[in-house]
Amino acid sequence: MSTVVAEGVIPVAAPARDTGAFDPLVELRGVWTPDLADRYLPIPGMPPVKYECQDGHLIVSPYEGSANTYAAYRMLTLMEPPARELGCRVYPTLNVQLGINRWIQPDFAVLNEPARGRIWIPGTRALLVGECVSPSSRVADRIDKPAMCAEAGIEYFMRVEVSYTKNHAEITLLRLGDHGDYEVHAKALAGDTLETREPFPLRFDPAELLED
Q: What keywords tag this UniProt record (predicted)?
């Protein structure tokens, strides 16, 4: 059978009521926490996936394709030097906890201080989180995750969109405003220049996120 999660369909094992076995995807629906995630994730037999949680509901999604993986890698290399100058650290996917029953695994993140081996990163330690948008994550990356990150008080949210068929690359850097919502701080398309002094100096053409 299949369980519908977020905007995709991920094959999972039959429910516990059919087999008599404990199935965390069924039994823990709506009550997931980091403690339960530490105990039951990853799900045995599942393909490699990202596990995120919104208000106790587990969201399972496949890992990114090569276009987004490369874009995230390039963002890491571009941000690492200026972020380190401020004492910050840049990371690929982390478990960023946004509440007692909320967490995300952003494609990249900048923390105010080194993680030093931590598995769960409090949202208060994140200066910036970034997502590379894919067709299956468009709603989550544009609406759901920014709303949760804003509520958690993360000052910056970066959205990256790349397409090789359209030769398109776009970066939108959002900053938390006075009313608790994100506002556009900087934005650029391939062929233009993204330039910002905050949260640290960046100046580059988004086309650099596309492999040549």
A: Endonuclease, Hydrolase, Nuclease
- Given a cut of 50, whether residue 17 has pLDDT beyond it is no
The verdict on 7 and 99 lying in the same domain is no
Band (pLDDT 50/70/90 cuts) for residue 209 is very high
Q: Is the entire prediction scored with pTM above 0.85?
A: yes
The token pair that represents 91 in the structure block: 């990371």
Q: 64, 8 in Cβ contact below 8 A?
A: no
pLDDT score for 78: 98
- Say if residue 71 is in the same domain as residue 171: yes
Six-digit token string for 51: 């596990």
Q: Which two tokens stand for residue 14?
A: 């039959």
Q: What gap in Å lies between CA 198 and CA 202, rounded to an integer?
A: 8
Per the structure, the complete domain to which residue 94 belongs is given by 66-209
162-188 residue pLDDT tens: 999 999 999 999 999 999 999 999 999
Domain count of the fold of the chain:
2
Longest CA span, the chain: 58
Q: Are residues 42 and 137 in the same domain?
A: no
- Tell me the C-alpha distance between 87 and 75, whole Å: 18
With contact defined as beta carbons under 8 Å apart, do 79 and 110 qualify? yes
Predicted pLDDT at 212: 86
Residue 128 pairs in a beta bridge with 110, 156
